[in-house]
Amino acid sequence: MEVAGRRPHAIRLFVVFTLLLLFTTVHSFYLPGVAPQDFFKGDLLKVKVNKLTSVKTQLPYSYYSLPYCKPEKILDSAENLGEVLRGDRIENSPYVFKMREPQMCNVVCRITLNAKDAKEFKEKIDDDYRVNMILDNLPLVVPYKRPDLDAWIYQHGFAVGFKGVYTGKPDEKYFINNHLTFTVKYHKDEETDAARIVGFEVKPFSVKHAYEGKWNDKTRLSTCDPHAKRTVTSSESPQEVEDKKEIIFTYDVEFQESEVKWACRWDTYLYMADDQIHWFSIVNSLMIVLFLSGMVAMIMLRTLYRDISKYNQLETQEEAQEETGWKLVHGDVFRPPMNSDLLCVYVGTGVQFLGMILVTMIFAALGFLSPSNRGGLMTAMLLLWVFMGLFAGYASARLYKMFKGTEWKKITLQTAFMFPGILFAIFFVLNALIWGEESSGAVPFGTMFALVLLWFGISVPLVFVGSYVGFRKPAIEDPVKTNKIPRQIPEQAWYMNSVFSILIGGILPFGAVFIELFFILTSIWLHQFYYIFGFLFLVFIILIVTCAEITIVLCYFQLCSEDYLWWWRSYLTSGSSALYLFLYAAFYFFTKLNITKPVSGVLYFGYMLIGSYAFFVLTGTIGFYACFWFTRLIYSSVKID
Question: Cystine design at 181: which of 160, 203, 365, 584 (Cβ 3.0–4.6 Å)?
Fold first, then answer.
C-alpha cells in the first residue's frame, strides 16, 4: 500500500520537475509579473540592445550589424526558443546609467565613417529601420500624442535616422540620430527608499557635435555641455551620414518619479485606443451565430422532429416507398469515403491544432503569456503542439478503425509526418531566403536541430502512443447498416453543387473572425503589441460555434437532396474559410503594408500560407466533428427495417 501511495506523489514530482525544466531560463524560474527588481540610488542600470526592425522589409538585423558604439565585450542574453524564432538578438550595450542620478551629455564613442559604413546606415534609413533597446525587461519607446485622441501613444524603438534637405539646396541628405535623451520612470517605495522601473522612453536627436582642438578623452563638446548646462533640444544642425564624416554618439538620462505601480507598468504599452471596434467585432460575430443557431434549431425542432415522427409511423408498404429526403440514403450515409486514410490524418492533425490553440488561449487569457516574457507565446505554442500529438494519434486511429482500417502504424506515421513535414519544408525555404539576406531573423542551425529533435523525439512517439490507445479501443459502431451496393446519387440542383456549397460555407466562419484578424496581422507585421486575449478567446469560441453550425445546416440540405458523400464535404465546407483568410491577407498586404523588397513579399505570403493552411486544418476538423455528431444523432433516432 505504501508503494502505491508513493507513486502518484512521484509522478507529480516528475511532472513539476519537467515543467520547471521547460520554462526555466538560464538564470531562474520566472513568471512574468511576479519578479520585480528593486533599485536603490546609485545602483547600476544596464541597457540592453535588441534587433533593428523595419515594417518595410520585415527582416530584423542585429544591433551591431551597424557600426554603432560597442562595449568591450559583446555578450548575448539568455534566450528561449520563441525569442530565437522571432529573430530577437538581445545583447549588452555601452549605455550604463546609475539609478536616480541624472546624466547630461555623456559621450559614448566617436567614429569616422568609411564608404561601407555610410552605405549601410543609408540603406537602413531608407528602409525605416528602428533601434530597439531594453531596460529592466521594458522595451524602449518614443512617446507621441495622437491629434485625434487626448492620449499618448508609444512607438517601439527610435528611428536609425531620417532624410531631409538643406534650405536652398535640392539634394536629399541622410541624417543619423546620434544623441538620445532617455527618460527612466520609477515608482518609489516611501518606506525603504527602493525604486522600481516603470517606464523607459527616449527622444532621439541628430546633432553635429562641435569641439575645440584635437579629440581626446577629456574633450568638452560645445554643442552639448553639462558644465554650461547646455542641452540638445532640437536637431538644428543635424549629423550628416557620408564617407569620412565624424560622428559622436552622446546621451542624456533623466529620472522621473511616477504614480504607476510596478504591476501596472505594461498597461501604457498595451493601451488600446480603439477597443470599441473589438466589441463591434464580437457583436457582429454573435449576430452570425444567432442567425445560424436559429437555423439549426429550426432544422432540429421542426424538420427533424416532423421527419422522424413521420418515418416512425409509416404503416404500409406504399408509404414506405414514398419516402423522400435524408432517410432514403440511410444505407449509404456511413459508407467510408474515398481517400479515407487522408481524412483520418487531417482530422487527427486538426484535433492536435485545436488542443494547442485552446490551451494557449486559456493560458494567455489568464496572463501567463504576457508580452514581458518575450518569446513565451511562441515557446508555449511549440511545446503544446508537440504534446498534443497524443490526441492527434488517438483521433486519427479511432476514425481509421471505424473505416475498417487495419494498418494503424501506416496511419500513425502519416499523422506524425504529413502536416509538420509540409510546414517544415515551407519554413526551411523561407529561412534560406532570410539567411541569404544575412538577417538575424534566420533561425540558426542549432535551433533547427532542436526543432527537429522536438518533432522526432517527443511528438512522433506521442502520436504513436495515442494511436496505439485509440486502435485498442472497440470500433465506433454505425447507427445504421451500410448497403453492399452504393445507391445512385440523383442530379443535384446548381446551388447544391459541391464546389458552390463548399465556398459558401467558408464565408460565415471567416466573417466571424475577420475584424480580429486585422488586429492580429497588425501586431505581427507592424510590430505592435497584441494582448487582448480575452477578446480573442471569445472570438475563437464564436468561430468554433459558427464552423459547427454552418456545416450542420449545409450537411442537412445535402442529405435531403439524397447526396450521401458528406465526409469530405463537411471538412471542406468550414475549412474553405482558410481560402478567404489568405485572400484577406493578400488584400492587407497591398492596402496596409509598404513592403517593397521581393524577398520580404515572399516571406509575407509564405508565412500567411502556413497560417492559412493551419486555419484550414483547424476549421475543417471542427466542421467534420459537428457533422459526424449530427448524422449519428439523426440516423440513430429513426426506426429502420
Answer: 203
